[in-house]
Amino acid sequence: MAQCSISNNIRRLRFDHDEMTQKVLAEMVGVTRQTIVAIEKGKYSPTLELAFKISHVFKMPLEEVFSYIKNEEKGDTK
Amino acid sequence: MSNEEKRSIISIISVSVVYIIYCIFVFGRFTSGSFDPVEDLSTWGLIILGFIPVQIIINIVISILYSIVHAVVTREEDDSEMVDERDKVIRLKANSAAYMVVGVGFMLSVITVAMGFPVFIMLNIVYLAFNLAEIIGSSIQLRFYRRGF
What we know:
The complex is a heterodimer.
Chain A: E1 4-8, H1 10-16, H2 22-29, H3 33-40, H4 48-57, H5 62-65, E2 66-70, H6 71-77
Antiparallel strand pairs in A: 1-2
Helix pairs in contact in A: 2-3
Chain B: H1 3-32, H2 41-74, H3 85-114, H4 119-147
Helix pairs in contact in B: 1-2, 1-4, 2-4, 3-4
């Protein structure tokens, strides 16, 4: 079974939104700053609910904040 | 290193230290000949019952000290009280592993009784299993907080 991962543009989006801090984003979506850090680093795939909350903060559709990449595809692009 | 990682490490150290103190205490009592480990089961019960509040008090004291040191050094509020979805998943994984360790420990302890070993061995295996469960649970928390999942 192929492994998959979820990548995201949160870091860039935070920067584009007046350099929003991780702490502010965490407070807006109701998680700890460490969870935002883990999501940005790709160490944690958020639940669908949290993913929607984050995309609502940036007023963007979910697929523009998060993208689903199979490891096989990752390998192809390299 | 995040707050959660530090707390996991502190938990591993405090449980290990209290268990080592327990071993030294029991070994001291055993070598002094002040009680018969095979017959004097009520003393075993009292020793283990005594170490449970010791463990709890040490955990509380270390937790308070850590919060104070963290606040002084980082000048940030300790947000470890806040538990989000990631914390819940990590705790669930850690608790599952800890539960399994306790289960295996209990099974082993029953086997020793079935094989005719003295009951104090059963008591000690159960007590060790609880301590190991705490250490393994905290180690798993540490691993998931560090590497992610």
